[in-house]
Amino acid sequence: MRRFTERLDMTPIGPEHAEQLWLLHQDPEVAHWADPLSPDEARAVAARMSEGWRVEGVHKWIAHDRATGELVGRGGLSWTEVAGAPVLEVGWVVRRALWGCGYATEIGAESLRFAADALGAARVVAFTEVHNTRSRAVMERLGMVYTREIRRPGLIAGKEGVHDDAPFALYAADLRPGAG
Fold it and tell me: Whole-model pTM?
């Protein structure tokens, strides 16, 4: 389900996008939050996302600038679990050179429209490590509301490596008509 915004061409990620995912995750600032990927890992991630589109009708898009064709990032929706319950999560990754240009917000907003219009979703969540203020600001620009702290594997400010019990800020968007 390809989507277009004012500036972006967003194509469902498939195996043909593995090299672009690999390139995106080679950016040190991206890799800090979204993990670096080897070429083999990028192929596996692209295949998993493609399968999500095929089986669940939803997953991430690869995003390109409509005017230039330049790779901007990736983002969209996927199913995950929070507190043992399945939830639809919105997320994004944008190349560091393009941070501050509104692309993450644009990807997130289109993802929420897709969730409401195409999927009929009533609620979507987003979460990030509590110290990831840039992603939290995007969530707030999208109208998402902080609901609580959750724990999952991730980064802890001032500590090296991934920790099993890192604090994450959980946000939610109520997509029901008239909500918000």
Answer: 0.94
